[in-house]
Write a structure and sequence with these properties.
The chain is of the alpha/beta class and 331 residues long. 47% of the residues lie in helices and 16% in strands. The termini are far apart.
Length: 331
Amino acid sequence: MNISDIAKMAGVSPSAVSRYLNQGYLSEEKKEAIRKVIQETGYRPLVQAQILRTRKTRTIGVILPKIDSFSIGSAVAGVDSVLEPKGFQILLADTHNSPEMELKYLDLFDDQRVDGVILIGTVFTPGHLAALKKSRVPVVIVGQHLAGASCVYHDDYHAFYDITKRLLDKGCRRFGYIGALPQDKAVGQERSRAYRDALREAGLGDQAERAAVAAFTMDSGREKARELWEAYGPLDALVCATDNMAVGALQYLKSQGVRVPEEVRLTGQGASSLSGVTTPAITSIRYFYEESGANAASLLLERLENPEVPAKEIKLGYAIVERESTSASLL
């Protein structure tokens, strides 16, 4: 089967079939006639021939830090919800939280193997900035703010300022913080900066440095909670940069017989299903990850249709999901 065969069976011209396959303009009547023939015959166009003819792969590369993550999975679902109906496929590249692997995949995808890239970013080294500047395919960043680049990011600062302020309003006065590496602008810098600012404004600036840097795992959260307790405990508030860290911290507190929330209030970020099924369930910050992926895909499609369109920066909001880990009165 080829385009001419499909055209004869559908009663249209070969150029009409070509426009249909490349999502060009056609009347609804012709679209339906061609669709019906393709469905009945099981016809599939030869992808390699399309790439040679159009220089388009109809594939988008998605570079992500770890695939087994609630937030990343939600963002990828958002990306796919926009791209799949437009006839695009996505090619996932898991970097395992390695900035070096991010650079490797940026270079690999730039070799015209994809039409564009969505980078769910972690850090921006000089190498990242150079790779983004020289990229021959459009790149949209998710989860990090980079001035002058097309990006969709979250309001990390105000989210963590608000959740820290909420604990202050509940009477907490002995704080600890489990965060991420400062090289990560969103998770490492903005969230901890907000936490510190809230404490300083409350006259608790001496506690702003009661912080530990963790990996994005429960084991690391448990270990860093232990370090904070041994150095500064007992605390009555523990703010964590992610839900995984908070779940690990909760495991440590339980092992020490520390009651949550009666003796210490605990918060996370992500509002994941995991933080909702712990005992007690953990108060968390909900970001709109699926929407961030969908917005990024839409920005990328806009760039593909019009390469001259200016870069756009989209900041999304948040919601604080209060659960049992902060609900009781402290003793």
